[in-house]
């Protein structure tokens, strides 16, 4: 190794480890992207698997567990959903405004990254101009 290369290696070793700036909790690059909550309420006793899965913080596995629990014993109040393994008190408190056990479901999940009609995507390429 040349003298200059050796100096570069020594300088890098002396500089110490480089740590990136910490990411804010819930950012997409941490693997825990948060979904926007949506609007309306969801009847826990009549909601479909897909409707339960659309709730923020509810995985397909948790949605299936909710359906299985209500088949065994219907929910008489929203708090009863905490009987389901995986439904923590913290998760329940975030979902509480959207949960019901009677009446129709009107929950509409928030739409993220919706393209408006007529808008152009930057990823779409225009056709190359033809020259005669």
Structure at a glance:
The protein is mainly alpha-helical and 132 residues long. The chain contains four helices and two strands; from the N terminus they run αβαααβ.
How is this structure best described in words?
The protein has 132 residues and is mostly helical. It has a domain at 45-107: Photosystem II 12 kDa extrinsic protein (DNA polymerase, domain 1). Helix content is 29%, strand content 3%. The chain has four helices and two strands, in the order αβαααβ. Strands 1-2 form a two-stranded parallel ribbon. The chain is extended, with a radius of gyration of 25 Å. 11% of the residues are buried. Mean pLDDT is 76; it is low at 26-33.
The gross shape turns out to be extended
The CATH superfamily of the domain at 45-107 bears the name Photosystem II 12 kDa extrinsic protein
Q: What is the strand tally?
A: 2
Task: Name the CATH architecture of the domain at 45-107.
Answer: Orthogonal Bundle
How far apart, in Å, are the first and last alpha carbons? 58 Å
Strand content: under 5%
Question: Which oligomeric form is depicted?
Answer: single chain
Strand order of the largest sheet: 1-2
Mean pLDDT: 76
Structure annotation, total helices: 4
Radius of gyration: 25 Å
Classification by helices and strands:
mainly alpha
* CATH level-1 class of the domain at 45-107: Mainly Alpha
Q: In this structure, how is the largest beta sheet organized?
A: 2 strands, parallel
Which fold name fills CATH's third level, the topology of the domain at 45-107? DNA polymerase, domain 1
- Report the helical percentage: 25-40%
Spans of at least 5 consecutive residues whose pLDDT stays below 50 are 26-33
> Helix and strand succession?
HEHHHE
